[in-house]
Amino acid sequence: MLIKKPIDIPSSEITDKSVYLNRRKFMLGAAVAGTAVAAGKVLGSMYEPAEVAAAPSLAFNKSSFSTTEKANSLKDITNYNNFYEFGTDKGDPARESGKFRPRPWAVAVEGHIKQPKMYDLDSILKNRTLEERIYRLRCVEGWSMVIPWVGFPLGDFIRELEPASKAKYVAFTTVFSPDQMPGQRRGVLDWPYVEGLRMDEALHPLTILAVGLYGEVLPNQNGAPLRLVVPWKYGFKSIKSIVKIRFVENEPETTWNKMQPREYGFYSNVNPRVDHPRWSQATERRIGEFRRRDTLLFNGYADQVAGLYAGMDLRKHY
Question: How many beta carbons lie within 10 A of that of residue 164, not counting itself?
Answer without folding.
Answer: 12
